[in-house]
Amino acid sequence: MSRLFCIGVLCALLSACASPFEKQVKADFEEKKALFTQGDFFEVIDAEGLTSEERNALMFLYAYMPVGDITDYSGEFYLENVRSSFATRDETTWGKSIPDEVFRHFVLPVRVNNEALDRSRMIFHDELMPRLEGLSMYDAVLEVNHWCHEKANYQPSDARTSSPLATVKTAYGRCGEESTFLVAALRSVGIPARQVYTPRWAHTDDNHAWVEAWADGKWYFLGACEPEPVLNLGWFNEPASRGMLMHTKVFGRYEGPEDVMRTTANYTEINVIGNYAQNAPISVRVTDINGKPVADACVRFGIYNYAEFYPVSSQHTGEDGLASLSAGLGDMVVLAVKDHAFGMRKVSFGKDKEVELKLEHQVGDTLSLSLDIVPPAGDSTLPDVTPEQRAENDIRFNREDSIRNAYIATFPDADAIRTFASETGYDAEAVTPYIIASRGNASEIEAFLKDAAERKMRKRALDLLGTLAEKDLRDAEARVLDDHLYHTDSLADVAMVLAPRIGNEMLTPYRSFFQEVISEEDAARFRANPLAWVEWCKDSLTLRDDLCTVGTVISPEGVWKSRIADRTSRNTFFVAVARSLGIPAWIDRVTGYVLYKENGEDVAVDFESGSSEQVAEGTLKLAYSPIPRLDDPAYARHFSLSRFDGEGFALQTHPDFEPWSNLFKESAVLPAGYYMLVSGNRLAKGGVLAQVSFFGVEQGKETDTELVVRESDEEVSVIGSFNSEAKFQTPEGEETSVLLTTGRGYFIVGIVGVGDEPTNHALKDIAAKAKELEAWGRKIVLLFPSRAAYEKYTAAPIEGLPATVVFGIDADGSVEAQIREEMKLRAGTRLPILLIADTFNRVVFESHGYTIGMGDQLLNTIHGL
Question: Which end of the chain is less crowded, N or C, counting CB atoms within 10 A of the terminal residue's CB?
Answer without folding.
Answer: N
